[in-house]
Design a protein that fits this description.
Layout (H helix, E strand, L loop, with lengths): L2 H16 L5 H10 L3 H32 L5 H25 L4 H25 L6 H18 L3 H15 L5 H4 L2 H6 L2 H7 L6 H21 L8 H19 L10 H16 L3 H9 L4 H25 L9 H14 L4 H25 L2 H21 L4 H30 L3
Length: 428
């Protein structure tokens, strides 16, 4: 239901209650089911700043104790460590019993308990000179914190858990042990299913933004040193998977930031395409050796890309599947680079892809009267033009003329879009 319809419904509810068509309880449930956008934003702000406030309080307590820690006796340190943990548990228990329906209370107490678990482990370990292993500490802390995600239904703790296991990947374990990260990600699966019951809620959207970023860094950390030649192709496939999932299952009419899979995949694919438009990069790629792990990874990510692309083309058609084909075009560029190590064929293909991307974004901006999309497409054209000047030796006069032309195009495109939007609003 669009915003105007929701506003109209909210205006009608008092009349419906007054005329005894519905009771107050039913009206309240309707308001909760169709909240105004301002109410959604208010809840989002309350959740975000409430969690940040609790985190700052927890960190402040830890810093105050750390400042005076060396001056305390061992028994006092032990008592303080347990007191912090028990007080956080008591607060969490109170919230579960009395404030379970209050999101800010639930999230704040859960993240506070998570911080106190880590602080108690660290302080006791320092006092009794236990094994100082950052990797083991992080892994233990995250595993002990995971039950809070389900007991407290806490998205804040789930996000903290994702950040923690991502940092763990980079703390020194060998590659074989790092693969445990996929199990650690999988342990959040049941909670993801709960969040997906309301795909566009603030907590769900925030969680999946962090999930995508953490998964990207974790993947790079696990396979660090094992992917080189086909690294850009593998990541292009991962970004295409994210984009296609977003288009197929998370593409309702709502603000762009509420569609993390689609926006994350789209922006990262544009970034990869731009990076691959430089010739020097292809010259380096041509010299890199091929290893079997990379080939297996390419096969593993290409299969879901092809499947999702088939579903997307079946649902939306070929033209609207352009961005989803990015990884396939990058794959073709790799084949061209193998046949021609100078990289000429590869950069021509990638530059054509980037130009088509830019023009498609501009066209969509003009069709939907969206200045944001229009200027994004123009910025893409400008970025490619600047990059080509860096790649080649052009005179200052040629560069000046090109930049002037781009500036005129920017102004002209925005003028046309504004005129069209005003004409549409006036009904002309």
């Amino acid at each position: 239901m669009d915003k105007e319809a929701i506003k109209w419904l909210h205006r009608q509810l008092p009349k419906l209650v007054e005329n005894q068509i519905i009771d107050l309880e039913t009206a309240s449930r309707i308001r909760d089911y169709y909240p105004l956008s301002s109410e959604i934003e208010k809840k989002g702000y309350t959740f975000t700043f409430g969690v940040i406030g609790i985190m700052l309080v927890g960190l402040g307590i830890i810093l105050i104790l750390a400042h005076n820690w060396d001056q305390l006796a061992r028994s006092t340190r032990m008592l303080l460590s347990f007191a912090m943990l028990l007080s956080a548990q008591a607060l969490a228990g109170y919230v579960v019993i009395k404030k379970v329906d209050k999101i800010t209370w639930t999230e704040g107490s859960a993240i506070f308990l998570m911080l106190m678990v880590g602080a108690s482990m660290s302080l006791i370990g320092q006092t009794y000179h236990l094994v100082e292993d950052t990797s083991k500490f992080l892994l233990t802390w995250m595993v002990l914190s995971l039950p809070l995600v389900y007991i407290m239904k806490s998205t804040a703790v789930a996000i903290g858990y994702l950040l923690g296991i991502t940092v763990w990947v980079f703390t020194g374990y060998d590659t074989a042990v790092r693969h445990l990260i996929w199990i650690l990600f999988g342990l959040t699966g049941p909670y993801c299913r709960q969040l997906l019951k309301d795909r566009y809620a603030n907590q769900t959207v925030l969680y999946f933004w962090f999930f995508l970023v953490c998964f990207l860094f974790s993947f790079g950390g696990v396979f660090e040193g094992q992917i080189a030649k086909f690294g850009f192709l593998i990541f292009a496939c991962l970004f295409a998977i994210s984009y296609l999932i977003g288009k197929l299952w998370f593409n309702d009419d709502c603000r762009g930031w509420r569609k993390p899979f689609k926006v994350f995949g789209l922006m990262t694919m544009i970034g990869v395409s731009f990076i691959l438009s430089f010739r020097n990069l292809w010259l380096r790629i041509a010299k890199l050796p091929v290893n079997s792990i990379e080939l297996w990874l390419v096969a593993a990510v290409l299969i879901p890309v092809l499947y999702l692309l088939f579903l997307h083309m079946t649902k939306f058609g070929l033209r609207r599947s352009l961005f989803g084909c990015t990884s396939l075009v990058v794959g073709c560029a790799y084949l061209l680079n193998m046949a021609d190590p100078t990289g000429v064929g590869a950069i021509i293909l990638i530059n054509i892809l980037f130009v088509v991307f830019s023009l498609d974004v501009i066209a969509r901006g003009l069709q939907t009267h969206s200045l944001g999309l229009l200027n994004l497409g123009m910025l893409m054209i400008a970025a490619q033009t600047v990059a080509r000047f860096l790649d080649n030796d052009f005179s200052f006069i040629m560069r000046g003329i090109a930049f002037m032309g781009l500036g005129i195009l920017f102004l002209l495109a925005n003028w046309i879009a504004i005129r069209r939007r005003e004409g549409g609003c006036d009904g002309k």
